[in-house]
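Posting this for the archive.
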Amino acid sequence: MAIVVRLSEIQFSEGDKYRELSEKLTLRNDTIYANRGSVFASDGSLLATSMSQYEIRMDAYTVNGEVFEKNIRALSASLAKMLGNSTTYWERKIRKARNSKNRYLFIARKLGYTDFVKIKSFPIFNLGMYKGGFIAEQSTVRAHPLGKVAQRTIGYDDYRGAPGIEGAYKKYLIGKNGFRLKQKIAKGQWKPINDRNEKEPINGKDIVTTIDVNIQDIAHHSLLRQLEHYEAEHGCVVVMETNTGEIKAISNLGRGTSGKYYEKRNYAVYESHEPGSAFKLMSMVVALESGAIDTSTVVDTGKGRYRLYGRYINDSKRGGFGKISAARALEVSSNIGFARLIEENFGKKPEKFINALYKMNLNQKLGLPIKGEGAPLIPSPGHELWSKNALPSIAYGYNLKLTPLQTLTFYNAIANGGEMVRPRFVKEIRSWDKHVESFEKEVINEAICSKKTIGEIREILKNVVKRGTGKKLYSEDFSMAGKTGTARVDYGDYAKWLKDKKYISSFTGYFPAENPKYSCIVVIHKPNNKKGFYGADVSGPVFKDIAQKIYSTNHIINKINNITPDFKSVKSSFEKYYTISNKELKLIPNVKGMAAMDAISLLENLGLKVNFSGVGKVIGQSLKVGQKIVKGSTITIKLS
């Protein structure tokens, strides 16, 4: 009677309490994460997107016995063809799971949407979750269809942090999560209760960047070739549209422990360093704008070695340049010339020179939405870095720091007539092809100096390429203007530096010289000085290559002759190879070491379905070499 009374209490008086407790222990809402919005290049090419992946499992016990026996062979054959292994293997696996009442048998993971739809149509599975035991768990992964293009600028938003565009604009990208009700089953596993979600996720909005894929490709590969040739530590290149500030290309490559280069850090945005001779342009603008000098002012650079405040200043030319004009001092990048011009005209009132630099916003961050912008540093009298040598050192690019993007922004202002515009990475926000928000040009400084000074500076920068330090880069086919830069690095211990000299090489400018469309900066750190280290030799060729290829794409080639060549011999060779391959290739070939494009083409021509991961050459394959080819089966190749 006591037991009956207690059961009655549990059933009726305390029933709701225990039912609620049971549901808490056996039911839960699993979050369904919303797909992040995609990131696009300016032409609509995908730079980053969320892709659905599916994990497939089977409730082998729930399937009707008659249905199971009638279709198990067909299901096993379909799985074998799609996933590999034999039909017998799959039939044994599923039968074993059914006998052991396994309601959560693992079938496959990391399937794309196309494969998900296909496997869902297989016998038994096509009956759905309740009658066919088909269970599909969806997840999303971030994919970059164009590989490593501008990887550090595109960025990410995960456990590593939130750098780049992905981090800066995550409030638009993240969307709203949904949830799905699941029930706890044997062995601590959780199974969806319904085919549908309790709350559908809302995907994030899309970002349209300013990146031009073609220019990005040119910049990336040109920089990579030069880094490899000069065995440099790292480098960056940025291409900006002069009138709008839109970043058309940005590549940041550093050398890894393996010796290969990859997008290691966003050097263009975060790395502030002494710009060296690139800063002589800023000094020249201040000197001209203040009226202290004009372009014809003569300065005596002597024989290339000048002592000032107990320290020697040297020029690159042995024997020196002698007496030259201020304009020529910039063309040949004379350290002595700029140290004397600035010291003699501003030495008694250095604040006047420093304040003029500040007025041109050179002491301020650009205010980029991307995290991690390096802070500029231009010391003034009273600063801990200030000394008697500070002013002449700043005049030719030492004792101060700027990031590559900050330097480029100033040169870009010279190119567009004096208007300093903020670099821009994003054009608009879109949702399902509908416009949401635009990002227009932002002006930092409407006029950094007078039109007269701009005109004089632009003429000198043209002559730098024609007859100055950049004359190796001159071409009659297209015009460009700019300034070379070579700066010592890690020279604190001068005796140690003399044994292993390290430099930063740069070239900053714009093109075409007459009506600039793009500005560009190339910075390469610590090239092998036995091969070269001057800006014109190391960084200048990258600038020229980018300018030349953009020219050839947009300006020079207007039409080509429509001539159809005779491909009879090529066609004959192909048909001969095709005949031989059909006769001989009945077994899985060894594709290790082949380029991805060649391996995929070969395997698909053999009737195989190819999945791959990574980029580069093949380093692994899922199907064994020499195994008999079963047309329609899947092979997965791993790329380096």
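The first strand starts at residue 27 and ends at 32. The longest helix spans residues 65-83.
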